[in-house]
Structures are given as C-alpha cells and as structure tokens.
Design a protein that fits this description.
alpha+beta; Chitinase A, domain 3; five-stranded mixed β-sheet; about 45% helix; about 20% strand
Length: about 160
C-alpha cells in the first residue's frame, strides 16, 4: 500500500514538474508576446497556475518525505490500523461493506478507501473482528460490527 501511495505521488510529481518546466513557460511566453500584461487574462491565469503547481509540488515533496519516515513496524498486526482491509456489517440493516484505511489526502473513494482521519477510520482504529463500534456521522450515530480485517503486514507477507 505504501508503495502504491508513493508511486501515485511520484507520478503526480513527474506530471507537475513537466507542466512547470515545459508547458507553463510556453504559455507565459505566448501571453507575453501579446503585449500589455496588466490586462492579459492568459498571462494572469498562467502565473496563477504556476503558483499552484509549485505549491502542490512542495506539498507532495513533504508528504513523500514523511511517508519515508512511516515505519510499518509501528502498525499493529493484530488490530485494525493504517492499511487494513476491513469488512463491517451495519447493525441496523445488515449491509456488508469493505474498504481500506489509508491516508486522508491519498484516499481514492472509487477504490473503497477511507481516511484514517475520518470518523469511520478513527472509530475502527485499534478494533478487532467481532467488535462493535459507534461511528458519529453528520447524519447521526451508526453502529458497525467488524466482520473481518487484514493488516498491512498481511499484504506485505503475501
């Protein structure tokens, strides 16, 4: 999982570096050639995008550095933690849901990932199979039973 997160970040960094070093300078050069820069919307938009790309690159580089410091040895092997694949049953309607606990800014909702910082992620951290947890949501309290889970250590071993 960490390798996937690192790879997604590295791919985004590569794309942003290309945009910052190749695409944006061409756009700025084209806008400058049009003359008066004070009222040039293309020039203003290109500069704004350049600032955004640089800020995003700085953020990603910091996240990559912090990921390098993440030690999976500190992630529990017998309880739900970062990287766990969790299956829960809603105690009200019996519906079964499965998802993976990941970092908030790296989650992919389409892949059924849930942030460890979310109310659901926080409620599940440290739980075991058979545990019932209350999750405080904006729509009210929801009770879930942990049906099963695998940890990041299980993924590394396989």
């Amino acid at each position: 999982m960490l390798d996937q997160i690192r790879q997604r970040m590295a791919d985004e960094v590569e794309t942003l570096v290309h945009e910052l070093n190749v695409i944006l300078p061409k756009g700025i050069e084209k806008a400058v050639a049009q003359g008066d820069l004070r009222e040039n919307a293309e020039y203003s938009a290109a500069l704004e995008r350049q600032r955004f790309v640089q800020a995003r690159l700085n953020y990603l580089m910091g996240r990559i550095a912090r990921l390098g410091e993440l030690d999976t040895a500190h992630v529990p092997g017998d309880r739900i933690g970062f990287g766990s694949k969790v299956t829960v049953r809603d105690e009200d309607d019996g519906q079964i849901e499965s998802f993976v606990l990941t970092l908030g800014d790296e989650m992919d909702v389409a892949s059924d990932e849930v942030s460890i910082e979310s109310p659901l992620g926080q409620a599940l951290m440290g739980q075991k199979s058979g545990d019932a947890v209350a999750v405080e949501l904006p729509t009210g309290e929801r009770w879930l039973e942990v049906v099963s889970f695998t940890t990041i250590h299980d993924d590394i071993a396989s």
